[in-house]
Design brief:
Low-confidence stretches: 1-8
Oligomer: single chain
Strand content: 25-35%
CATH architecture of the largest domain: 2-Layer Sandwich
Radius of gyration: 18 Å
CATH class of the largest domain: Alpha Beta
Structural class: alpha+beta
Mean pLDDT: 94
Helix content: 25-40%
CATH topology of the largest domain: Killer Toxin P4, Chain A
Largest sheet: 5 strands, antiparallel
Strand order of the largest sheet: 1-4-5-3-2
Amino acid sequence: MQGPKCGDQQDPLFHFCFGQDNYTETSPYGSNLNALINLLYAKVPPTGFGLGSVGQDQNRVNGLALCRGDVSSTDCRTCVIDASKEIRERCPCKKGAIIWYDNCLFKYSDVEFFGKIDNSNKFYMFNIQNVNDPTPFNQKTKDLLSDLASKAYVSPVLYATGELELEDSKTLYGLVQCTRDLSSADCKKCLDGAISELPSCCDGKQGGRVVGGSCNFRYEIYPFVNA
């Protein structure tokens, strides 16, 4: 039997467990969560996004999954499967949870959250290397991400990537994305809010991300998007 190849299994970036109530695996909520996960397995990979609800009243479970805009449907499906397994191991019996990977995010809750900006589930990541001249670099990073936000919110998939030439023949690369349950206006609002956190997250850093439940951005001084 052949073992897994390097890179097949990615580690999650971060996760949160939330919700006031717990459930048991054999409860109606547990069964509905399994049904929702099966629904998202089928729904998400073809377009990179899907949402759904299963059940009624207190046993109703709502969920969505989003794959990064440059990820193939095969890698998207792999990520959604990995995420759904990992989140139940990390948040056993919690009625609400969210997990992020490089290639996808997966979220479920007993509270319907579709169409609402999620500001409560958020984290930062940054490159530990600093740039030599932070003030102009910070401004150019903000300019690039703001430009991409203006492109993403009018895009059908609420996603945009781009690059900006820096001095010394270097290039700054950026990506922004929203979950597609948001309206265009709320996508722009979410991204503008995330970009406003640049000074807190990534001041003078060669790369960084603000990642939330409804939108995220990433920038680096090396290419990281699949062509």
